[in-house]
Amino acid sequence: MSKRKHAEILRDIFAQPVPADVRWDDIESLFNSLGAEIDEGKGSRVRVALNGIRAVFHRPHPERTADKGALKSVRRFLIEAGVRPE
User: Fold this and answer.
1) Helical (H) or strand (E) element with 54
2) Helices 68-80 and 3-14 sit at what angle, rounded to 10 degrees?
3) Structural domain of residue 18, as residue ranges?
4) How far is it, in rounded angstroms, from Cα 38 to Cα 15?
5) pLDDT (tens digit, 9 = 90+) per residue, 45-78?
6) Which residues have C-beta within 8 Å of that of residue 53, sequence separation ≥ 6?
7) How many domains does the chain have?
8) How many C-beta neighbours within 10 Å does residue 17 have?
9) Tens digits of residue pLDDT in 15-42
């Protein structure tokens, strides 16, 4: 995935109102591009560590898009980790 696409996903995560169509695999790709460590947990849990900040998220299923609550959690995690859109 390109830097441009990652920047677009980051903008979507920080958008107001919170969008309802951001794919979870795009969020994980963004985490990877930022250098995050991602570990699989039990079931749908995903542990993410970035810049000394840790969080646990639940992969959506059977849908592929993150709900608005999950996006707000991702946004909060990114802010705590010092990541904001340019």
Assistant:
1) strand 53-58
2) 110
3) 3-80
4) 24
5) 999 999 999 999 999 988 899 999 999 999 999 9
6) 77, 80, 81
7) 1
8) 6
9) 999 998 999 999 999 999 999 999 998 8
